[in-house]
Amino acid sequence: MNDNVNMCLLPIEGIKIIVDLEEIKIVDYNDRVKVPVPKSEGTDYRLSKQKPPYDPRINRAAIVQPDGPGFQIDGHTTSWMNWVFHLSFDARVGQVISLASIYDSEKHKHRSVLFKGHVSELFVPYQDPTDEYYFKTFFAVENSDCPNNAVFMDGYYAGQDGKLVKVPNVFCIFERHAGDAMWRHTELDVPDKTEARPEVSLVARMIATIGNYDPALDWEFKPSGSIKIQATTHTHVEQIKEDVYGTLLGDNTVGLYHDHFLIYRLDVDIDVSDNTTPRKSYWTVVSETAKTESEAKIQLGLKPAELVFVNPNKKTKPGNSYGYRLIPGLTTRAFTKYNVWVTQYNKSEIWAGGRYVDQSHGEDTLAVWSLRNREIDNKDMVFWYVIGIHHLPCQEDFPLMPTLSAGFELRPTNFFESSPVLKVKPPKPVTLPKCSAIP
Amino acid sequence: MNDNVNMCLLPIEGIKIIVDLEEIKIVDYNDRVKVPVPKSEGTDYRLSKQKPPYDPRINRAAIVQPDGPGFQIDGHTTSWMNWVFHLSFDARVGQVISLASIYDSEKHKHRSVLFKGHVSELFVPYQDPTDEYYFKTFFAVENSDCPNNAVFMDGYYAGQDGKLVKVPNVFCIFERHAGDAMWRHTELDVPDKTEARPEVSLVARMIATIGNYDPALDWEFKPSGSIKIQATTHTHVEQIKEDVYGTLLGDNTVGLYHDHFLIYRLDVDIDVSDNTTPRKSYWTVVSETAKTESEAKIQLGLKPAELVFVNPNKKTKPGNSYGYRLIPGLTTRAFTKYNVWVTQYNKSEIWAGGRYVDQSHGEDTLAVWSLRNREIDNKDMVFWYVIGIHHLPCQEDFPLMPTLSAGFELRPTNFFESSPVLKVKPPKPVTLPKCSAIP
């Protein structure tokens, strides 16, 4: 073995070992096939090994916030602008957002949006019918994963001996200044009547390293009331297989076609815990309500569909129900058949793929629960969303793949009486320092 | 009339005046119906009129770049990292990107990606069968539309008298630091083997004010070779209509349901001017080539589809054709039926909706040109993409709508031999100044 670190690119293929963990004993060993190992040339991603650096023209840049961050963290509760939410760590899923509520300046109180939200299942089916497989997960964000204005947070879980285990720097929290506008308006024929406010949002980020796969999971809160949930994938596996399942990337190296699926579970509590999902036909407001779990399933992309969660018992002044709606992202349809599911809340229904996943017998999965077709109208509902990213590897992904993102957004829809951001004051401009303190 | 400036919210409805512009004469006047004018209360968006400001907690923030911007502008040509492109102004469509090419560090030359790209058509069909209508466009970006590190560029066009007309500050150009990673990798079981590079991209932005509608149009260039094209809408029209076509937003105010369609025209030249579009079935690489215009049309969302443009006459070392592929965004299907069209290049085919739009007789439109079903295989091709945003207004959009975005991405696919960003050197960290120069 040479000193190259990019082991994912140098797999020894074709060996499968099955271990009985109770007996700590190898019960099966199968050396199916010998495959040539790919060349390691060009696979080292470390900066120290790049010479000469290709392009030094990424200039130094940083966000300055002379008044410090705009959010406050008290234990695991973060307050920022009109949002308050709790962020905690779970040994299985990592990031858990709970009790997210938003301040209503007209009603003078915080109003509930999300009781609890997290990833329920992560599934990366490789289009490779052979069965070598590995799986190992750990969680941590590095400084380089987050911008310079980020604040890091530790996580905790109960270890096998019952003692507290600390996971340092498992999350980062930062204000995102991406250079976009929150709103903008020009009044025609009225000079100097353009105003705009910069879009600033709060991001809570976690990165899970799962074998060759490092998804960054972002929960982004916007002052407008939106919650945007995004998964960014970075996959680097290259395996050696016959060409039909992948793209030949180099000597003995084939990138396998695969999908990335993340199933999110969101226990939404829009204003109150019991919600209703009225359905609108696209061009008239004749609403039907999805009354059962089967009526609420959606195959995105097939026809225009709008999913809204409302408090059916309260109305705005003009008579609309308080609600939040789904803005879906790009969709890949596949194994789950539906992208969107709604189930009646049941405290045991947490893991879409079953509590023990591949050791489950298939009886405790989302697909089976929803066959009971329970009533959801005016009940506490759980919303399931399947993010799918279809990845056909190409040579640009070798040895490291540029990021690819997908996500969805929950956006207030007649939850407020009017725009919650109209009265947000734009920050005073920062005069950039010209002093010698910038090295 | 009171001193409220938000005229879009105070329309005098039901009046239609038709003017003969050759004779400068009113030829028809129709006062169809009297409609009560909405209340102006709560519609003034100007900061000076907000008291008290709702939330002052958006802290001051700015991007500092001690070495200045990382791009160079020479006339209308911008160079940044591995990209070079030309940005110019057209009186009808605004922003025109041309001769975009990317440096290949292995071939030691710039290689063509896009010959010319711009919006061909913008269409906002309101679901309102009555015919009051207005249309007026102007272009300009304001300081508040772009981050503090933006550089502004003027545009020029030939006026009616043949003289040069300058449009000041029509574009802004800036490096976007949104806090994401360009790539990231952790090697399992090897300590301290996580590296990541911050994602930095170059954005060229234009904002068009068209009646009540202010779309921000971004062309974003990434060091990975991707070009991301995005339209962000900010619509503020509220009209007074019976409830069936919209949502009641307040006294006498109804937000009309509507779609936003932008049709982009991209004369792609991937490596060379004559390209081919192989089609892949999703899970095996049996490629079929779309040989004619009708074979290349796509209804996104209906079934998995991959659109790739390749130079059919050159191969990478492992034998893949140099290519770029489409990563579509969220899709709204509607009037154009197809989201994606490919036509053989024809210099007269620029305007998807016809040269004179609503005065056209329908014979010079994209739908008609493509009926000729010309060969596209190994020809100079034009790629048309329809961005659709479906807008069901809600009370949060009153009086000003938070932004909503949609777009698509062209991403290199075996265009390079390997990742073009592996060797990008991360910028040296900026030590934030603690001097008194920050006010």
TrEMBL record, chains A, B:
Cofactor comment: Contains 1 topaquinone per subunit.
EC number: 1.4.3.-
Keyword Oxidoreductase attributed: yes
Residue ranges occupied by any Copper amine oxidase catalytic domain in the UniProt entry: 62-422
Protein source organism: Hevea brasiliensis
InterPro entries for this protein: Cu_amine_oxidase, Cu_amine_oxidase_C, Cu_amine_oxidase_C_sf, Cu_amine_oxidase_N-reg
Cofactor dependency: Cu cation
Keywords: Copper, Metal-binding, Oxidoreductase, TPQ
Domain of life: Eukaryota
Enzyme type, top EC level: oxidoreductase
rRNA-binding is among the record's keywords: no
Name of a matching Pfam family: Cu_amine_oxid
Protein name from the UniProt record: Amine oxidase
Family assignment from sequence similarity: Belongs to the copper/topaquinone oxidase family.
UniProt PTM comment: Topaquinone (TPQ) is generated by copper-dependent autoxidation of a specific tyrosyl residue.
